[in-house]
Every structure is written in C-alpha cells, then in structure tokens.
Design a protein that fits this description.
Alpha-Beta Plaits, four-stranded antiparallel β-sheet, single chain, 11 helices
Length: about 280
C-alpha cells in the first residue's frame, strides 16, 4: 500500500467518523431539545416544528443546494468531500429517525444535553474544517466567509448562523432561544480551539555549540528540516549556533530528549504555534 493510498484511507475514516459523531450529537441531543444554534440542522428543527417535515430529508435537500454554491466558490476537492459528508449526515439522521425514534429529551437535564449537543457537532465540524471539508449547509457559507475575509472559522460560523438562532425565539420560547444563543457562542469558540489543538506544533530555538548532531537527528530521524544561524553570547562573548525548527508534538518530545542526551548544556526555547505555512505543513 502506497503512502498516498494510506492518506486517502485515513482521510476517508476521519470524514466518516467525524460526520457520524455530528449526527449523534444532532439527533440525540439537538433535535429533542429544539436547540437551533446554527446550521441546516438548526433550520431543520424549526421546519420540523412548523410543518411536521422530516428533519433528515430537509437537511439533505438544503445541503445539496448549498453544495452547488460551495463547488462554485470553494472548488472541486471541497465539494467532493462535503458531498460525501452531507449525504452521510443526512442519511444517518434519517436512519436514526426510523430505527431509534425519539419523542422527548433523553434526560431531564437540559444543560447537560446542551453540552453534548454542542461538543459532539463542534468536534466533528472542527475535524472536517481542518481537512478542507464541511458537513454542508451553512458551514459552506462559513467556509466562504473564511476564504474571502479575515474571519476565523469560529467567527464565520457565528455570523452565518445568527439568523437561525434568532428564529428560535419566535418559533419556540425564550428559554430555548437563550439555550440556542449560548450553544452557538460556545460552539464557535470550541471549533476554533479544537482546530488550533489539532494543528498545534512546537517551534524550537536551540542555542548550542555543536549543531551537527542535532541537525542530523532532525533530518535523518525525524525527517524534518532546520535552519542554523551564527550567534554570539551576550554575557560570555563565545560563538554559538541557533537551530530553528518546527515539529509536531510527538517529534518535539523525541527531539527534546535527544538534545538532553547529546548536549545537556544546550539552551532550548519551545513555543506553541498552530499556524505553520510552508512545505510539510500548510499551504497558503
């Protein structure tokens, strides 16, 4: 199995798993409580309440319309992934409706259910956004706002889903509307936080006198690159070398231990960063 095939299988698994996580959060926690904090599923809650229409079927119809818009503005790779996830999401919800019908919330604790209604879709959405996909619906609008403005994806979600949340005050009651407002705000923050943690890398500044061993380890064992700069100690005046490199968390752990074993006197600065643009990380 080639490396490219392995990546495709991994991506397919992540797309499927993330979408099913979203479907569970939406069907088992969002729909029964009439939480409408955004997305086509939020609109589906309102439509289902007003017209007794199947939420899963409606989700599929509106997703297909917005998918065409995504194809035009966001490109074919995005549209292909989103087509799969939106069909899977809508189909999963429709199957849940037929196999596991729910007429009332699972518990009598609305705040507990709100937490799961936020956390599961937020986790799924964050993984999809990070892969250049979405679950369809208003997420497509959020992706467009992110592409053509300076908005983070969380803020873009907040903007695109505000009208849906406001509608819940009129269709349901003030309590449901307030829960929906809270849910949208927390979801927007969670999506940005999860994406940052998924992409979290470690930026190394290593001040040392013998950089060859460390650089060889970075290149040959970790299969990353590094930059070496000449420096001079301000206190001692001795010649130094500074190695700059960026690694993921697992690689950073290995490098830190290696440096400790070969150059205990090295001075290491490690900084968290989640936006690395360049070969081996993200493209512009």
């Amino acid at each position: 199995m080639t490396k490219i095939t392995g990546y495709k299988i991994r991506d397919f698994f992540l797309l499927t798993f993330s979408t099913l996580i979203m479907a569970m959060g939406v069907y088992f926690f969002k729909f029964p409580n009439n939480f409408t904090f955004g997305g086509v599923t939020g609109i589906a809650v309102i439509i289902a309440k007003l017209f007794r229409f199947s939420a899963g079927d409606y989700t599929l119809i509106i997703n297909m319309l917005l998918l065409v818009i995504g194809l035009i503005f966001l490109g074919k790779p995005f549209a292909v992934k989103t087509a799969y996830t939106s069909i899977l999401l809508s189909g999963s919800i429709s199957i849940f409706e037929k196999v596991l019908p729910i007429n009332a919330p699972l518990t009598d604790e609305p705040f507990l259910e709100l937490i799961f209604a936020i956390a599961l879709p937020a986790l799924g959405s964050a993984v999809l956004f990070n892969m250049g996909a979405s679950s369809g619906g208003t997420d497509v609008i959020a992706m467009m706002l992110k592409k053509y403005s300076n908005c983070d994806i969380g803020k873009a979600l907040l903007i695109s889903d505000t009208l849906v949340v406001l509608a819940s005050f009129f269709v349901f009651d003030i309590k449901t509307g307030l829960f929906s407002c809270l849910g949208l705000i927390i979801k927007s923050l969670m999506v940005d936080t999860i994406i940052e943690n998924i992409n979290l890398c470690k930026y190394f500044n290593v001040v040392c006198q013998e950089p060859d061993l460390i650089c060889n380890y970075i290149v040959n064992e970790l299969h990353r690159s590094a930059t070496i700069c000449d420096a001079k100690g301000a206190f001692t005046g001795t010649h130094k070398n500074i190695i700059f490199t960026v690694l993921n968390r697992n690689e950073a752990y290995k490098l830190r231990n290696y440096i400790k074993s070969v150059d205990p006197a090295a001075f290491i600065l490690i900084t968290n960063t989640s936006e690395i643009i360049g070969k081996g990380f993200h493209s512009i």
